[in-house]
Fold:
Amino acid sequence: MEFFVAQILTGLANASSLFLVACGLSLIFGVTRIVNFAHGSLYMLGAYIGYSLMQVLPGMIGFWGAILLAGVIVGVIGVAIEMLVLRPVYRAPELFQLVATFGVILVIQDLALIIWGPEDLLGPRAPGLRGVVRIMGEPIPKYDIALLVITPLVAVALWYLITRTRVGVLVRAATQDREMVGALGVNQAWLFTGVFALGSALAGLGGALQLPKGGADLMMDFNILPPLFVVVVVGGMGSLPGAYLAAIIISVLNVFGVAYMPQSTLVLMFVVMIVVLMIRPYGLFGREEVAGEHGQAGEPERPIKPASDKIRLLVTAGIVILALLPLYGSSFAQVLTTDILIFCLFAASLHFLLGLGGMVSFGHAAYYGGGAYVAALLVTHAGSPMELAFILAPLGAGLAALVIGWVCLRLTGVYFAMLTLAFAQLLWSLVFQWGTVTGGDDGLINIWPAEWLKDTTIYFYFALFFAVGGILVMRHVAHSPFGYALRAARDSERQAEATGINTKQVQLLAFGFAGMMGGLAGALFVFSKGSVFPNELEIARSFDALIVVFLGGVKTLSGGVVGAGVFKAIEDVLTRFEYWRLIMGLLIIFVVILAPDGIVGSLRKAARRVGGLKAGGEE
Amino acid sequence: MFEVEKINSFYGKAHVLRDLSFSVPHGKVVALLGRNGAGKSTTMKSIIQLVRPASGSVLFQGQQMIGLPPHKIAKLGLGYVPEERRIFTDLTVSENLMVGLQPPRDGAVTWTQDMLFDLFPNLAERRNNRGKALSGGEQQMLTIARTLMGNPRFVLLDEPSEGVAPVIVEQMAQVIKQLKSEGLTILLSEQNLHFAQAVADLAVIIEGGAQVYFGTLQDLGAHPEIRDAYLAA
Structure:
């Protein structure tokens, strides 16, 4: 019993930061409709800035002052991000803004590395709160008790702000209908900035507040995202009490998990989430997400057409040039091109899901890494020949996608997206924690192709065949009746249902198909590298693919492939520099602001403009 | 006071307003009449800039509205009451009014919540109820009251009689007359000619997005052929 109480108190104390960060994310999403992926980065900045301030500010007042000040500074940074990066793209399609926040993540990662260095920083103890108090004989850190008091106070203050002040009324009104709020004389731009400042400050506060319990390190930004999304999804987007309750549930569960089932702490969190979502699809206190109630921003979708003869010729020429690579390219060039081809296939499979299916998956790495792991596990544990493993890998990934898709497709919009990310992270934690089977962090090695494929050039042709083949199959499916049904379900679910299309079934099949293609890319990958590590399943990998699809252009068929080619090539150049993330991040932000239609979309627009001038304006 | 001149508005490629012109004199109520789909709501939206006209001019107190963001227009004293009402259903009646709150303005009544509850007694009893708990008529009153909280000089009222009970329509007419007597200028879009005749001084009739009549309601009474051709019976 004593132990039980102590565990619950620890859990409640741990919930503190998570709650603050989740509130910030929820607030920002409610008003701006942006899932701020950089929220984890703001949390990380809060920890680092708090740490630095604690070094200079002395004593108890200095310590608490540093925490508050860290919140304020991160709030100001949030304002800068909102005004410089997000304001220019509010008119772009909503999901495009995500890419801008990816760029911010990369920039902040490198800035933190430059300023604070690569070593993990150990958080200082709180002055006057060192040591423990005994509650029912169990030692509880004094700082935990302080957190237990502080969190409800912050929660009440937030609740007061949201429910009892005019600012709170405006925030809630804007969450429902921001256009109408504007027509009533409220400047939305400042409301957005204000909410972003508050949400960012909460993230910063959360980061600084956890310093004595943890510290500051460069992994914090991604590490907080899964529990953060889980809390927001379980609690219900935009619900303050929901976030509080969910943060407590997740944290308490985590503490008990560590005590009783240390191997499964990460998995446990997702199991809870899945159970909650099965019973209450929009979280404990959430409401159904009504997407695009007053019309979607951006231009209407252009119908996709089968390629013209000119394009076909161009593509054929491109493939021929690629196929002749071994004649003029070095073996390094062949390896690099193989990497690019694999990545193109992976990106194209996400593009199929996202562009044609309208299903925004934040966790597509699950199928890529999944396929790689299926192949590697078969080879390692079953001694399967390479050919068999290669065939079974995409099937395994596709099967996983069908199961995950079946759960995720119960939801739509942002809940769907977050759930896909959560599942990807679940697979990652399974692989990471189940070391005896998967090798954990050490990965699986010695997964080489069959004897006849060992040669770099032959493997290059092997990859070329399957990557190009896979992409062409997806293109073909896009133009098949199934592709039409899929696009109908994307554009108007109800109308599609009314014409006799079983939209959920079509979407599920598409999800499985895209997963299978992702798995094919993963299988190609694992045999080209001879090994696989958990990072092929991690969030960053999913984000790579998302960035590529958005940068290439969601609304164009070739977007994924073109984006992947450009991305890999740039990445290859940039990774030679020390701070390549910074450059990459800035590059992404610039592309988002300057070319909101992506590379292919913008080229096409430019071509139309030039063509339009010649033809004297056809439209 | 207010002038619309030759505005053209589009939804995508659909040409909805065609060279539409009319004016609203200070202190008058002008009825914007026309059939379903004639472009009444688009006219309203083109004034508050929720739809941006491709050409033409919208002058309010001599200032050009085209190109301004809606919140700046509202701050100049031009209030908008949308046809779909668009009240904030999760907010209470009182909170809905709080969203509309603007500083006092010269030459306009400075409304308080209590004054509005006097104007709409039904809302007074429901001040702590959420928007979604209100009846259609109550929602209509709330959306007008919310706009009045901004102390406007000129109000766009988009179909206030639509979809509400006859007794509420009667009440709306009384409210509009009272607002006019307090000096408010109103552009009112309507399908209901009787309602318009009860409250308006002038009428603009539009058909296919173009103006087909602009004059007094008395003169319109003398031209039954216009009424029959462009308005539903």
